[in-house]
Design goal:
3-stranded antiparallel sheet, disordered C terminus, 212 residues, 10% strand, two-stranded parallel ribbon, 2 domains
């Protein structure tokens, strides 16, 4: 049996989701495929489930997709809003990859060379994960990478180490790009009470506003 690739499917009613799951399993079984029961679940999600759960003081489930954790939250005025933040597993994975790259590159290239590559890597991370509401996770990634860079700069073979003051001076003249929101998903529109969570910071690929 082979595992099915990860996917998210939305339904208006719970019974429709349950029926789909039953039919899908039967269909896949004919082709030697399977749905992982340990990774498959049905959750209530969206505007109306959110309002209901809020009245009952309950929490709705979340799901991870394309590197983001999707969750239900509210605007400052109490209206439903779809929230997205970097998935914890993906964040940890990216940090492990960054740590390995810094460890391997530090003795292969001069500092000024790989420092420019590091700047590009950070910008690439922000351009993908820089969505409205995700600033805290972007900052967490930035400060962790900053610490990793400081660690590996000081482990270069046959090179003089930087203390923290010297490292800060180097950063002053060779700054790493700061976190930035590139995809402003909560944009002003004709729908009343739509808000902008972060200042406009680029040309987002997708712009939409949650209705009420």
């Amino acid at each position: 049996m082979h595992d099915l690739s990860v996917m998210q499917i939305c339904f208006e009613k719970a019974e429709e989701a349950e029926e789909f799951g039953k039919v899908l399993r039967e269909r896949l079984h004919k082709f030697g495929l399977a749905v992982s029961d340990g990774k498959s679940r049905i959750i209530s999600f969206g505007r109306y489930p959110y309002y209901t759960a809020r009245e009952r003081k309950e929490k709705l489930g979340t799901f991870d997709f394309l590197g983001f954790t999707h969750y239900c939250t509210a605007t400052r005025k109490g209206y439903f809003r779809l929230g997205r933040k970097t998935a914890k597993e993906r964040l940890n994975q990216r940090l492990k990859e960054m740590n390995k790259w810094l460890r391997d590159i530090r003795n292969m290239k001069r500092l000024e060379v790989w420092w420019e590559i590091l700047q590009v890597k950070l910008k690439g991370h922000y351009r993908y994960y820089g969505v409205s509401g995700n600033m805290r996770e972007l900052k967490a990634f930035y400060y962790r990478v900053l610490w990793l860079a400081y660690k590996w700069v000081n482990r270069r073979s046959q090179k003089q180490s930087f203390n923290w003051v010297q490292f800060q001076k180097y950063l002053k003249y060779n700054p790493l790009p700061k976190p930035k929101i590139y995809h402003l998903t909560y944009a002003p529109s004709s729908i009343r009470d739509c808000i902008t969570e972060e200042p406009y910071a680029g040309n987002p690929h997708v712009r939409f506003c949650e209705g009420h």
